[in-house]
Hints:
This protein is mainly α. The chain has ten helices and no strands. It folds into two domains: 1-102, Up-down Bundle (Methane Monooxygenase Hydroxylase, Chain G, domain 1); 119-182, Alpha Horseshoe (Serine Threonine Protein Phosphatase 5, Tetratricopeptide repeat), CATH 1.25.40.10.
Amino acid sequence: MPDTSCNPLDILDFWWTAGPQSWFKRDPHFDAIIRDRFSGCMEAALSGRLDAWADTPHGALALLLLLDQFPRNVFRDDARAFAGDARAQAIAAKAVDAGFDRAFPKDGRTFFYLPFEHAEDMAQQERAVDLFRRLGDQTYYHYALVHMDVIRRFGRFPHRNAVLGRASTAAEKAYLDDGGFGA
Length: 183
């Protein structure tokens, strides 16, 4: 049964109103707002109660925010930040294949592609790079290439090792000690 307390348009309105100045920076106040307003919706998305949203462009985008972006804000430095990744990747693949991403301007399309960039899988990384290249935004494309390089080198994101209880290899430790990218 769908969770009626969650509305995709409310989620999108919140995200667009916050804007790029809030999306990718560490801000405990912004994280707290997301936690207070959308924790229940994130849980509903993780449990599959909002899966019907994936059938429309705006619903799919809201679901991707709940599964891929909001947990990264609410659960920084915690394994739960990645709990929605597999669902987000599956939803993003279906949505992009259906052309839902093209219903939005460039900034909106980004959130259809980020689940692929967040994957610890080379095929998903290659898809992210291709999508961001086609998007034509050099900054997003650059970050997609950086993410893919990390997966090509290590097969995973070393900065996640500690919170996921994974032992780092010597090469990963050296990379992190040298200021290796962690997103």
